[in-house]
Amino acid sequence: MALLKLENVSVSYGKIKALDNINLEIGEGRIVTLIGANGAGKSTAMRTVMGLKHCDGGKVWFDGLDITNKDTGYMVKQGIILSPEGRQIFPGFTVRDNLFMGAYLKTKEEAAETIDMVYELFPKLKAREKQTAGTLSGGEQQMLALGRAIMGRPRLLLLDEPSLGLAPLIILEIFEEIKKINEMGTTILLVEQNAKVALKVSDMAYVLETGKVVLHDTAQALLNSDKVQKAYFGGFAEG
């Protein structure tokens, strides 16, 4: 059974239909990526899963539970955590305080255990735990955003543009950590402008165009697709 399932989901912004009757599934323990050009509906799909945007029609299921149009707090309690585009860390807080903000629903014991795991994944954060987050490099801030999300112990982690604004070598480092997070048992839904890098770490992928799913296959098959290579491997803006 899929951990997450979108069933005939439609979402609008006023008269503009951002998602048009889409179907999407993520198996537990998998990484699934959404590919598409600017305005394709990728971020809208993620916001809908997170409860930040309501469906006009269709159903969203999580582990067999109907979570359609539930609020964001409910989603977090179910184990769905978003690491947003632009990182949205607290620049005036220390690294450590930023991390603990991600564990606000956890006990002190759970948070203490999880922060050790985060520091093992991201040794740079441990070395800078007393620094204010605004003094970190872009790559370190992205690590902090990922670490803060992990502090909530997600079953499903939503990653919105984790490579945005980062240098190529840092992007590779971030995606190595994303693979490690997945190997720890976390299911991941990924929206990423760097389609090639995203597909290389993913199991499955969906291609969105103007709010519709136009391709769905294994990540490897889409990596080898002439259509996908021509359309998306040159880089594109977020939608």
Write the layout of secondary structure elements.
Layout: E1 2-13, E2 16-27, E3 31-36, H1 42-50, E4 57-62, E5 65-66, H2 72-78, E6 80-83, H3 95-101, H4 108-121, H5 123-127, H6 138-150, E7 156-160, H7 168-183, E8 187-191, H8 195-201, E9 204-209, E10 212-218, H9 219-223, H10 226-232
The mean pLDDT is: 91
What Rg, in angstroms, do the CA atoms define?
17 Å
First and last CA, distance = 29 Å
* Unreliable spans: 235-239
The largest sheet has its strands arranged as: 6-7-8-3-9-10
What is the overall silhouette? globular
* Largest beta-sheet characterization: 6 strands, mixed
Write a short abstract of this structure:
The protein has helices spanning 42-50, 72-78, 95-101, 108-121, 123-127, 138-150, 168-183, 195-201, 219-223, 226-232, and strands at 2-13, 16-27, 31-36, 57-62, 65-66, 80-83, 156-160, 187-191, 204-209, 212-218. It has 239 residues and is an alpha/beta fold.
Describe the structure.
With 239 residues, this protein is α/β, with parallel strands linked by helices. Helix content is 38%, strand content 27%. The protein has ten helices and ten strands. The protein has helices at 42-50, 72-78, 95-101, 108-121, 123-127, 138-150, 168-183, 195-201, 219-223, 226-232, and strands at 2-13, 16-27, 31-36, 57-62, 65-66, 80-83, 156-160, 187-191, 204-209, 212-218. The strands form two sheets. It has a six-stranded mixed sheet, with helices on both faces. Strands 2-1-4-5 form a four-stranded antiparallel sheet, with helices on one face. Strand 4 (57-62) and strand 5 form a beta hairpin. Helix 3 (95-101) packs parallel to helix 6 (138-150) and helix 6 runs parallel beside helix 7. The longest helix is centred in the C-terminal third of the chain and has 16 residues, at 168-183. The chain is globular, with a radius of gyration of 17 Å. The two termini are 29 Å apart. The relative contact order is 0.19. Residues 235-239 have low confidence and may be disordered.
